[in-house]
From TrEMBL:
Lineage top rank: taxon: Bacteria
A molecular function (GO) term: glycosyltransferase activity
Ranges in a coiled coil: none
Protein's name in the database: Amidophosphoribosyltransferase
Keyword Nucleotide-binding: no
Domain spans labelled Phosphoribosyltransferase: 95-188
Record-linked Gene3D superfamilies: 3.40.50.2020
Transmembrane segments: none
Biological source species: Cyclobacterium qasimii
Sequence similarity: Belongs to the ComF/GntX family.
Keyword Glycosyltransferase: yes
This protein's UniProt keywords: Glycosyltransferase, Transferase
Length: 189
C-alpha cells in the first residue's frame, strides 16, 4: 500500500500532474511494480476475467478512505472509460468496477461522465510524450449539466505518467466541477 491518502496533495503522483491537469488530490491504493503483486492483481482483473476482484479492492480502498476522513469529500466517483469495442470484448471496464467499489464504501454515486471517442493503442511501451499524444483529445464529457459544481473523484486502474487521467480531468474541467481528485488502484514510479 502507498498510504498516499495520508498525503494526497504532496506526493510524487501529484507532482507528475502539476501543470497538466486541474486536480487537487492524487492517491493510489497500491504501488505498481513489474512482476510484483500489484501487476499480478491487475493482470487477473484485466485479462483473466476477474471484475469482482476490482470491485472488492475498490471496496477495501473506499473503506480505508472513509476511515481516514474522506467520507464527504466527493459528490461522485467517475471511472476512466474504455472504448466501447474494448469493453464489449472484455465484458466490463475494470476501472469502473474499482470505482463502483469505492463509491459503495463511501455511499455515493458512481457516474459515467466520460466517453472515449476513439480507441487508442496500449500505453504500455510508450514514452511519456507518446502516452500524452496517444490520449490527448480522446475523452469527451457527457451528462455535462450534472458536472457543474460537483466534487469528482476520477478513478482508473493504473497510473504511470498520468497522461490518461490528465486528459480525462481536462475534459471534465471544461464543465466547471468544484474539484477533481484522482484515485487509482496502482501507480508506478
Amino acid at each position: 500500500m502507498t498510504n498516499y491518502h495520508l498525503i494526497p496533495k504532496e506526493n510524487d503522483l501529484k507532482i507528475k500532474l502539476l501543470g497538466l491537469a486541474p486536480v487537487e488530490m492524487v492517491m493510489s491504493y497500491l504501488r505498481f511494480s513489474k512482476k510484483g503483486f500489484s501487476q499480478k492483481l491487475l493482470h487477473q482483473i484485466k485479462y483473466k476475467n476477474k471484475p469482482e476482484l476490482a470491485r472488492v479492492l475498490g471496496l477495501h480502498y473506499g473503506y480505508l478512505l472513509k476511515e481516514n476522513g474522506f467520507m464527504n469529500n466527493w459528490s461522485h466517483v467517475v471511472p476512466v472509460p474504455l472504448h466501447i469495442r474494448k469493453q464489449e470484448i472484455r465484458g466490463y471496464n475494470q476501472s469502473e468496477q474499482f470505482a463502483k467499489g469505492i463509491a459503495e464504501a463511501l455511499e455515493i454515486d458512481c457516474k459515467v461522465f466520460l466517453l472515449r471517442k476513439r480507441p487508442t493503442e496500449t500505453q504500455t511501451n510508450k514514452s511519456r510524450i507518446e502516452r500524452w499524444e496517444n490520449v490527448s483529445a480522446v475523452f469527451e464529457a457527457c451528462s455535462t449539466s450534472e458536472i457543474k459544481g460537483q466534487r469528482i473523484l476520477l478513478v482508473d486502474d493504473v497510473m504511470t505518467t498520468g497522461a490518461t487521467l490528465a486528459s480525462c480531468a481536462i475534459s471534465l474541467n471544461d464543465y466547471q466541477p468544484e474539484t477533481i481528485d484522482l484515485a487509482v488502484l496502482a501507480a508506478g514510479n
